[in-house]
Amino acid sequence: MKKKILILGGTGFIGYHLAKKALKKKFSVTSISKHHPIKKRYLKNVNYIIFDITNKKLLRKNLKLNFDYVVNLAGYVDHSEKKKVYESHYLGCKAVANYFLKKEIKSFIQVGSSMEYGYLKSPQYEDLKCNPRSAYGNAKFLSTKYLLNLFEKKNFPVTILRLYQVYGTHQDLNRFIPIVINSCKNNKIFPCSHGNQHRDFLYVEDLIDAFFLILNNDKSRGQVINIGYGVPIRIKNIIKRIVNFYGAGKPQFNKIKLRKEEQMIVYPSLYKAKKILKWKPKINFITGLKKTISYYNCN
User: Fold this and answer.
1) Which own/partner pairs from 127-134 qualify as long-range (CB within 8 Å, at least 24 positions apart)?
2) pTM for the complete prediction?
3) For residue range 121-138, what is the model confidence (pLDDT) as tens digits?
4) Which domains does the chain have, with CATH numbers?
5) Most exposed residue of 28, 82, 170, 212, measured as fewest CB within 10 angstroms of its CB?
6) What is the pLDDT of residues 196-238, one digit of tens each?
Protein backbone atom coordinates (compact mmCIF):
# COMPACT_ATOMS: atom_id res chain seq x y z
CA MET A 1 0.00 0.00 0.00
CA LYS A 2 1.26 3.48 -0.89
CA LYS A 3 2.35 5.79 1.92
CA LYS A 4 0.14 8.85 2.07
CA ILE A 5 1.52 12.35 2.59
CA LEU A 6 -0.43 15.58 3.00
CA ILE A 7 1.38 18.81 2.16
CA LEU A 8 -0.24 21.98 3.47
CA GLY A 9 0.92 24.75 1.15
CA GLY A 10 1.80 22.19 -1.51
CA THR A 11 1.46 24.66 -4.39
CA GLY A 12 4.34 26.85 -3.21
CA PHE A 13 8.04 26.67 -4.06
CA ILE A 14 9.07 24.22 -1.33
CA GLY A 15 5.76 22.35 -1.50
CA TYR A 16 6.27 21.71 -5.22
CA HIS A 17 9.71 20.17 -4.65
CA LEU A 18 8.48 18.08 -1.72
CA ALA A 19 5.50 16.79 -3.72
CA LYS A 20 7.71 16.00 -6.73
CA LYS A 21 10.14 13.94 -4.61
CA ALA A 22 7.26 12.19 -2.82
CA LEU A 23 5.76 11.15 -6.17
CA LYS A 24 9.16 9.86 -7.25
CA LYS A 25 9.24 7.76 -4.07
CA LYS A 26 5.79 6.34 -4.99
CA PHE A 27 3.88 8.19 -2.26
CA SER A 28 0.23 9.15 -2.62
CA VAL A 29 0.38 12.97 -2.47
CA THR A 30 -2.37 15.39 -1.44
CA SER A 31 -1.89 19.17 -1.36
CA ILE A 32 -4.04 21.73 0.44
CA SER A 33 -3.68 25.39 -0.52
CA LYS A 34 -5.83 28.48 -0.90
CA HIS A 35 -4.91 28.72 -4.58
CA HIS A 36 -4.42 26.39 -7.52
CA PRO A 37 -0.78 25.79 -8.50
CA ILE A 38 0.71 28.02 -11.16
CA LYS A 39 1.55 26.22 -14.40
CA LYS A 40 5.26 25.77 -13.68
CA ARG A 41 4.48 24.13 -10.31
CA TYR A 42 1.63 21.84 -11.38
CA LEU A 43 2.17 18.08 -10.92
CA LYS A 44 -0.40 15.88 -12.61
CA ASN A 45 -0.44 13.07 -10.02
CA VAL A 46 -1.01 15.32 -7.00
CA ASN A 47 -4.50 15.53 -5.49
CA TYR A 48 -4.97 19.31 -5.16
CA ILE A 49 -7.62 20.47 -2.66
CA ILE A 50 -8.29 24.21 -2.53
CA PHE A 51 -9.49 25.84 0.70
CA ASP A 52 -8.33 27.90 3.69
CA ILE A 53 -7.07 25.73 6.58
CA THR A 54 -8.10 28.39 9.13
CA ASN A 55 -11.73 27.43 8.35
CA LYS A 56 -12.32 24.48 10.72
CA LYS A 57 -15.61 23.53 9.07
CA LEU A 58 -13.94 23.22 5.66
CA LEU A 59 -11.06 21.34 7.28
CA ARG A 60 -13.43 18.64 8.58
CA LYS A 61 -15.39 18.59 5.32
CA ASN A 62 -12.41 18.25 2.96
CA LEU A 63 -10.11 15.94 4.90
CA LYS A 64 -11.87 12.61 4.59
CA LEU A 65 -8.70 10.64 3.81
CA ASN A 66 -6.26 9.18 6.31
CA PHE A 67 -2.60 10.17 6.03
CA ASP A 68 0.66 8.72 7.28
CA TYR A 69 2.54 12.01 7.19
CA VAL A 70 1.63 15.71 7.30
CA VAL A 71 3.96 18.60 6.40
CA ASN A 72 2.81 22.13 7.20
CA LEU A 73 4.22 24.67 4.75
CA ALA A 74 1.05 26.78 4.72
CA GLY A 75 0.93 30.47 5.56
CA TYR A 76 0.27 33.96 4.26
CA VAL A 77 3.23 35.13 2.17
CA ASP A 78 2.88 38.91 2.62
CA HIS A 79 4.39 39.39 6.07
CA SER A 80 3.27 43.04 6.25
CA GLU A 81 -0.34 41.84 6.69
CA LYS A 82 0.03 41.16 10.42
CA LYS A 83 -3.50 39.89 11.07
CA LYS A 84 -3.42 37.46 8.15
CA VAL A 85 0.06 36.29 9.15
CA TYR A 86 -1.19 35.52 12.67
CA GLU A 87 -4.32 33.76 11.39
CA SER A 88 -2.59 31.63 8.76
CA HIS A 89 0.69 30.78 10.47
CA TYR A 90 -0.61 30.33 14.01
CA LEU A 91 -4.39 29.79 14.03
CA GLY A 92 -4.19 27.68 10.88
CA CYS A 93 -1.43 25.57 12.40
CA LYS A 94 -3.46 25.08 15.60
CA ALA A 95 -6.56 24.04 13.66
CA VAL A 96 -4.66 21.47 11.61
CA ALA A 97 -2.73 20.08 14.58
CA ASN A 98 -5.92 19.67 16.62
CA TYR A 99 -7.60 17.90 13.72
CA PHE A 100 -4.72 15.43 13.32
CA LEU A 101 -4.41 14.93 17.07
CA LYS A 102 -7.40 12.60 16.71
CA LYS A 103 -5.87 10.75 13.75
CA GLU A 104 -3.14 8.13 13.76
CA ILE A 105 -0.40 9.92 11.83
CA LYS A 106 3.24 8.87 12.04
CA SER A 107 4.78 12.31 11.63
CA PHE A 108 3.74 15.97 11.59
CA ILE A 109 6.46 18.30 10.31
CA GLN A 110 5.99 21.97 11.10
CA VAL A 111 8.07 24.36 9.02
CA GLY A 112 9.22 27.12 11.32
CA SER A 113 11.60 30.00 10.69
CA SER A 114 14.93 31.48 11.76
CA MET A 115 12.85 34.62 12.46
CA GLU A 116 11.73 32.91 15.69
CA TYR A 117 15.17 33.68 17.17
CA GLY A 118 14.81 37.44 16.79
CA TYR A 119 18.14 39.22 17.21
CA LEU A 120 20.01 36.33 18.80
CA LYS A 121 23.66 36.15 17.78
CA SER A 122 24.78 33.59 15.20
CA PRO A 123 25.40 30.71 15.05
CA GLN A 124 21.87 30.30 16.37
CA TYR A 125 21.21 27.22 18.50
CA GLU A 126 17.79 25.63 19.02
CA ASP A 127 18.00 25.73 22.82
CA LEU A 128 18.44 29.52 22.95
CA LYS A 129 15.55 31.53 24.38
CA CYS A 130 13.68 32.92 21.38
CA ASN A 131 12.70 36.57 21.20
CA PRO A 132 10.96 37.13 17.84
CA ARG A 133 10.75 40.76 16.67
CA SER A 134 8.30 40.43 13.77
CA ALA A 135 4.67 39.37 13.34
CA TYR A 136 5.83 36.45 11.20
CA GLY A 137 8.51 35.31 13.65
CA ASN A 138 6.06 35.61 16.54
CA ALA A 139 3.34 33.59 14.75
CA LYS A 140 5.85 30.85 13.96
CA PHE A 141 7.13 30.83 17.55
CA LEU A 142 3.59 30.61 18.96
CA SER A 143 3.05 27.59 16.69
CA THR A 144 6.28 26.01 17.91
CA LYS A 145 5.27 26.40 21.56
CA TYR A 146 1.76 25.07 20.91
CA LEU A 147 3.00 22.01 19.03
CA LEU A 148 5.70 21.18 21.59
CA ASN A 149 3.02 21.35 24.28
CA LEU A 150 0.94 18.83 22.30
CA PHE A 151 3.98 16.58 22.12
CA GLU A 152 4.61 16.83 25.87
CA LYS A 153 1.00 16.28 26.93
CA LYS A 154 -0.42 14.07 24.18
CA ASN A 155 2.63 12.60 22.44
CA PHE A 156 1.76 14.34 19.18
CA PRO A 157 4.49 13.22 16.69
CA VAL A 158 5.73 16.67 15.72
CA THR A 159 9.12 17.83 14.48
CA ILE A 160 9.77 21.54 13.93
CA LEU A 161 12.25 22.62 11.26
CA ARG A 162 13.59 26.16 11.51
CA LEU A 163 14.53 27.19 8.00
CA TYR A 164 16.90 29.90 6.84
CA GLN A 165 17.14 31.15 3.22
CA VAL A 166 16.08 28.42 0.79
CA TYR A 167 16.62 28.94 -2.95
CA GLY A 168 16.49 26.94 -6.16
CA THR A 169 14.42 26.21 -9.26
CA HIS A 170 10.71 27.09 -9.49
CA GLN A 171 10.99 29.86 -6.88
CA ASP A 172 8.85 32.96 -7.36
CA LEU A 173 10.52 35.91 -9.08
CA ASN A 174 10.01 38.21 -6.08
CA ARG A 175 12.68 36.47 -3.99
CA PHE A 176 16.28 37.71 -3.66
CA ILE A 177 18.20 35.32 -5.93
CA PRO A 178 15.54 35.19 -8.69
CA ILE A 179 15.31 39.02 -8.62
CA VAL A 180 19.06 39.34 -9.20
CA ILE A 181 19.11 36.60 -11.87
CA ASN A 182 16.19 38.15 -13.73
CA SER A 183 17.73 41.64 -13.54
CA CYS A 184 21.08 40.45 -14.88
CA LYS A 185 19.50 38.23 -17.54
CA ASN A 186 17.69 41.31 -18.86
CA ASN A 187 20.63 43.68 -18.24
CA LYS A 188 18.60 45.90 -15.94
CA ILE A 189 19.65 48.56 -13.48
CA PHE A 190 18.49 47.42 -10.03
CA PRO A 191 18.83 48.96 -6.56
CA CYS A 192 20.53 47.10 -3.68
CA SER A 193 21.57 47.73 -0.10
CA HIS A 194 25.30 47.99 0.63
CA GLY A 195 25.29 44.19 0.50
CA ASN A 196 27.54 43.60 3.51
CA GLN A 197 24.97 41.45 5.28
CA HIS A 198 25.84 37.76 5.57
CA ARG A 199 23.02 35.26 5.12
CA ASP A 200 22.62 31.48 5.03
CA PHE A 201 21.46 29.98 1.71
CA LEU A 202 20.39 26.34 1.32
CA TYR A 203 19.59 24.70 -2.01
CA VAL A 204 16.04 23.35 -1.98
CA GLU A 205 16.95 19.73 -2.81
CA ASP A 206 18.99 19.49 0.40
CA LEU A 207 15.98 20.68 2.39
CA ILE A 208 13.76 18.06 0.76
CA ASP A 209 16.21 15.34 1.81
CA ALA A 210 15.80 16.50 5.42
CA PHE A 211 12.01 16.11 5.24
CA PHE A 212 12.28 12.47 4.22
CA LEU A 213 14.84 11.71 6.92
CA ILE A 214 12.32 12.89 9.52
CA LEU A 215 9.25 10.91 8.44
CA ASN A 216 10.18 7.70 10.25
CA ASN A 217 12.77 9.06 12.69
CA ASP A 218 11.36 8.70 16.21
CA LYS A 219 14.32 10.59 17.70
CA SER A 220 13.18 13.74 15.90
CA ARG A 221 9.77 13.81 17.62
CA GLY A 222 9.35 16.78 19.94
CA GLN A 223 12.50 18.41 18.57
CA VAL A 224 13.24 21.82 17.06
CA ILE A 225 15.92 21.40 14.39
CA ASN A 226 17.67 24.10 12.37
CA ILE A 227 18.00 23.40 8.66
CA GLY A 228 20.35 25.61 6.65
CA TYR A 229 23.71 25.62 4.93
CA GLY A 230 25.61 26.55 8.09
CA VAL A 231 28.02 28.97 6.38
CA PRO A 232 26.93 32.59 5.86
CA ILE A 233 27.55 34.21 2.48
CA ARG A 234 27.96 37.94 1.86
CA ILE A 235 25.01 39.32 -0.12
CA LYS A 236 27.24 41.56 -2.23
CA ASN A 237 29.33 38.55 -3.31
CA ILE A 238 26.21 36.72 -4.52
CA ILE A 239 25.12 39.71 -6.58
CA LYS A 240 28.59 40.14 -8.10
CA ARG A 241 28.81 36.43 -8.94
CA ILE A 242 25.51 36.54 -10.85
CA VAL A 243 26.53 39.77 -12.63
CA ASN A 244 29.83 38.13 -13.65
CA PHE A 245 28.03 35.03 -14.91
CA TYR A 246 25.87 37.05 -17.29
CA GLY A 247 28.35 39.82 -17.99
CA ALA A 248 25.30 42.04 -17.58
CA GLY A 249 23.13 43.71 -14.98
CA LYS A 250 23.82 46.97 -13.18
CA PRO A 251 23.43 46.69 -9.39
CA GLN A 252 23.15 50.08 -7.67
CA PHE A 253 24.63 49.47 -4.22
CA ASN A 254 23.66 51.67 -1.24
CA LYS A 255 20.32 52.60 -2.85
CA ILE A 256 18.22 50.61 -0.36
CA LYS A 257 18.50 51.37 3.34
CA LEU A 258 18.65 48.48 5.80
CA ARG A 259 15.89 48.11 8.36
CA LYS A 260 16.93 49.46 11.76
CA GLU A 261 16.61 46.01 13.32
CA GLU A 262 18.40 44.13 10.52
CA GLN A 263 21.21 41.85 11.65
CA MET A 264 24.45 41.79 9.71
CA ILE A 265 25.22 38.09 10.16
CA VAL A 266 22.60 35.32 10.41
CA TYR A 267 23.28 31.59 10.19
CA PRO A 268 22.39 28.42 12.13
CA SER A 269 24.15 25.77 14.12
CA LEU A 270 23.52 22.45 12.36
CA TYR A 271 24.62 20.27 15.29
CA LYS A 272 21.18 18.78 15.96
CA ALA A 273 20.43 18.13 12.29
CA LYS A 274 23.69 16.23 11.93
CA LYS A 275 23.26 14.31 15.18
CA ILE A 276 19.54 13.43 15.08
CA LEU A 277 18.88 13.23 11.34
CA LYS A 278 22.38 12.33 10.12
CA TRP A 279 21.78 15.17 7.66
CA LYS A 280 24.07 17.81 6.22
CA PRO A 281 23.86 19.85 3.00
CA LYS A 282 25.38 18.13 -0.04
CA ILE A 283 25.05 20.88 -2.65
CA ASN A 284 27.51 23.74 -2.29
CA PHE A 285 26.38 27.27 -3.04
CA ILE A 286 28.15 27.60 -6.40
CA THR A 287 26.65 24.35 -7.71
CA GLY A 288 23.18 25.28 -6.45
CA LEU A 289 23.43 28.75 -7.98
CA LYS A 290 24.44 27.33 -11.37
CA LYS A 291 21.44 24.94 -11.30
CA THR A 292 19.17 27.86 -10.42
CA ILE A 293 20.55 30.16 -13.13
CA SER A 294 20.20 27.38 -15.70
CA TYR A 295 16.53 26.95 -14.77
CA TYR A 296 15.71 30.66 -15.08
CA ASN A 297 17.57 30.88 -18.39
CA CYS A 298 15.09 28.36 -19.81
CA ASN A 299 11.96 29.90 -18.23
Assistant:
1) 133/261, 134/79
2) 0.96
3) 999 999 999 999 999 999
4) 4-165+201-227 (3.40.50.720), 170-200+232-264+284-297 (3.90.25)
5) 82
6) 999 999 999 999 999 999 999 999 999 999 999 999 999 999 9
